[in-house]
Write a structure and sequence with these properties.
The protein is mainly alpha-helical. Bound molecules: heme C.
Length: 151
């Protein structure tokens, strides 16, 4: 904006404006720093609070892997690697294996217990498996994470 009083004033004004901008910029930087610091502190607090959860996350990664192996060894042949009931043996079967990718499957009450029951006691064509509670839990974990559709 041209300022009465000639070029010098204009430059001075310009300089003041530049200074203000710098001040604003440095304030912004401080704000950003503060925000980052807050996020950092927030995260540290979260990490501290969630320490046991972290252990669970690690453990559940292992559970998932173990469950995957068990599923592939015992269930894949009928229920398929994608859990959609189209395993290699399915085509020749009269009763089609349950489709675990169908949200209706997961909407049943106590679905995890149903899975557990099917594994322990068999369910029609599902053979009775000689699997322990730990292994059953791992399969259920895997099926939940892998096949359950997002809501
Ligand atoms: C020999 C093929 C076969 C194998 C192996 C098999 N299933 Fe199945 N499964 C089926 C068929 C077929 C059905 C559908 C039965 C029905 O509709 O009555 C079924 C149904 C189910 C159901 C639904 C039970 C219910 O209450 O409705 C669950 C859960 C299940 N299977 C889990 C498993 C798991 C977990 C494994 C591996 C540990 C497995 N199945 C292995 C063939 C198989």
């Amino acid at each position: 904006m041209p300022v009465p009083g000639g070029k010098g004033t204009f430059l001075r004004n310009d300089f003041v404006m530049a200074e203000e901008t710098e001040a604003q910029a440095s304030k912004k930087e401080t704000d950003v720093n503060r925000a980052i610091k807050n996020i950092f502190y927030g995260m540290s607090a979260l990490i501290a609070a969630a320490a046991p959860t972290y252990l669970v996350i690690d453990a559940s990664a292992e559970i998932y892997k173990a469950g995957q192996t068990l599923y592939e060894d015992n269930c894949l042949i009928c229920h398929g690697d994608k859990g959609n009931g189209k395993g290699p043996a399915a085509a020749a079967m009269d009763t089609q294996p349950r489709d675990f990718t169908n949200s209706e499957f997961w909407q049943q009450n106590n679905v995890n217990e149903k899975i557990s029951d099917a594994i322990k006691n068999g369910h029609g064509p599902v053979p009775e498996f000689d699997l322990t509670g730990k292994h059953i839990h791992e399969i259920i974990e895997y099926m939940n994470r892998m096949f359950k559709p997002d809501e």
